[in-house]
Amino acid sequence: MNKIIPGQTIGIIGGGQLGRMMALAAKEAGFVVAVLDPGHNSPCGQVADIVIQAAFDDRDALKTLAEKSDVITYEFENIDAEALSWLSSIAHLPQGAELIRITQNRLLEKKMLEKADVPIAPYHVIEHEQEIYDIIESFGFPAVVKTLTGGYDGKGQVKLSSMDDIQEAQELVRKNGACVLESFISFDREISVIVHRNSRGESTTLPIAENIHVNHILHESIVPARIEHGVEKLAEKLAYQIADELKLVGTLAVEMFVTDSGEIWVNELAPRPHNSGHYSIEACQTSQFHQHIRAICNWPLKKTGLLKPAVMINLLGQHVKPAYEAISRHPDWSFHLYGKAEAKQNRKMGHITILTDDMKMTLKEVHESPIWKTT
Ligand code: AMP
């Protein structure tokens, strides 16, 4: 595969913040950026050279994107896999459509993870609501029932702590069809390993992030993750195993649970740059967005070393106003806003990254800040 060079056009399917930060990285190197998104004035559209405003599965619009682009990538996983597969026959889509097909479906994803020989929580497919009773007997509480497709930020899942929760889980199966029931892992920490790979098979991982969620939405990533060296090495090894199994080109975020005895369980995958990797823009030798662009353009991958420990905290709709008020108090904080017009409750509007030599102090400062007092 030839290199894509500056002056050529990178097409991005999806105009959200991930597309925007990809586009900004691409623009730095001198690429032209085209974006396809149904929204008007999307976060990525605001910084792109060419905007195609249409639905993601609109074949005419995808064809136009293909005509304008030398390489195409995507910024989110809920693209119609059929449309993407068709697109790969008329355009240069180095990531292919298979990665999307697998990561869109929890069962396909789990089967692939088993093939990659990485540990995942024991699970069972539930085809019919009545099966939950039988299966929970062998699994025991606590457990989680998850829809096969479409779940995000805790949506599409029900935790089973006791028999009292069975009805809610049955409702999930009734509404969504087959689900998976998996053991609830009593984890000490959640971490993510972001791995990049190019078509020459070169791969890198970013320093591991420790992720803290509030109301099922990522709130804070702390880097380096507060885990032992052996756990860190194992987590990286597992991420590489998955990337190789998938013959990954581009970016894959691997979310994992770490127990207090240092065991690792792989939870789920995202086939794109990830919220927990935003810190890399300031804190790493190469950001996840620059590395993504290098990977899909078949450039050699750069080193990803951590320049300084960092914490990244998300700004949701309710945090934007107090964040603006905090700008003058924090000259060393990097504010990233995504250009979204409406600051709706719980909508990801931006993030802040803080580089620090004293993580304890910085976390104290963050936790005491009025910005995140409104939940
Ligand atoms: P997911 O949509 O699979 O990423 O799940 C969202 C969140 O729910 C995870 O980040 C965990 O905090 C929690 N969770 C999901 N599955 C499990 C599990 N098997 N054991 C413990 N916690 C889980």
Detail the topology: elements first, then pairings:
Layout: E1 9-13, H1 17-28, E2 32-37, E3 50-53, H2 59-68, E4 71-74, H3 81-90, H4 98-103, H5 106-115, E5 123-126, H6 131-139, E6 143-147, E7 157-160, H7 166-176, E8 179-183, E9 189-197, E10 203-205, E11 209-214, E12 217-223, H8 229-245, E13 250-258, E14 264-270, H9 280-283, H10 288-296, E15 310-316, H11 320-326, E16 334-337, E17 348-355, H12 359-368
Parallel strand pairs: 1-2, 1-4, 2-3
Antiparallel strand pairs: 5-8, 6-7, 6-8, 9-10, 9-11, 9-13, 11-12, 12-15, 13-14, 15-17, 16-17
Helix pairs in contact: 1-10
The protein binds adenosine monophosphate (AMP).
Adenosine monophosphate binds at residues 121, 144, 151, 154, 182, 184-185, 190, 213, 216, 255, 267-268.
CATH architecture classification name of the largest domain: 2-Layer Sandwich
- CATH-defined topology of the largest domain: D-amino Acid Aminotransferase, Chain A, domain 1
Strand content: 25-35%
Backbone structural class: alpha+beta
Strand segment count = 17
Distance between the termini: 48 Å
